[in-house]
Input
Amino acid sequence: MTARTRALDPAVGRALSALSATAKKGLGDPALAELVVIRASQVNHCAFCLDMHLAIAREHGVSEKQLGLLAAWQEAEEVFDERERAALALTEAVTVLTDGFVPDEVYENAAKHFDDARLAHLIGLIVAINNWNRVMVGRRIPPGGYTP
Amino acid sequence: MTTHNPDTTITTTVEYAPEQPARLDWAKHAPEVYKAMVRLEIAARQGLDHKLYELVKIRASQINHCAFCIDMHTKDTLAAGESVERILQLSAWDESRHFYTAKELAALELTEAVTVLTDGFVPDEVYENAAKHFEEAELAQLIAAITAINAWNRFGVTCRMAPGHYQPGQYK
Output
């Protein structure tokens, strides 16, 4: 499969990268960040992003068990702790806005596990990967280009 | 005051539901994230027709149910001289195609496809129709612009930013 286009304004690319980097840094948990990013990429069906972030997750030591069960995290309580589950529930809610809003219980549960600053950065990270998902799926950038 | 004719002026106070408070002032708690968003916004709008850009913003905000963004962009669009009709018909654009140019329709179709990725990818015919109306660099900007409004929608909805207070041109 070839890309539809690889055009992307350099200033747009830099802003997208800055957003991702600053959000990830502010969250302060690189392994959790990868779980969030991979889950959003699954929901948005972004092959390029999945390929790239599965590699990064492994670099950060995320287990194969977590990576394998991520798509069914709600059914895998022993594999994801409460904080991870709160972040993943928020990831899904913020990624799928078309079904209607971000439920109070999802937001409030996330707010229990993350202080205001970390929560703001977690939301920023979910937004940032949603951005990349749109830019990659829209242009149909094929997976496999990423090397750690 | 009482009257038997409902069409004459009746002085009653309409009681609206209370305004919901915002959940989180995300820009305050993540100022660098906010700065990156502003950079993205400025970069993404370069080279795009302003009227088209606002139509894209409103349509994505409708699909994502972002009240704050709808408030902002309908006011900005009206202030920029857009017709009320074209704004009101936007949520049914597929049935009111004669209100829009072929280029605007291609952009709106792409907006919906790029906004709703969960149903599966961006269809070839949608992308190809957009590519007929936009040359490559402009199309990349359009995708960036759709991405940017989706990003603002996510902050607006998640943090429950309250609509109604925006003044046209406030953030210009």
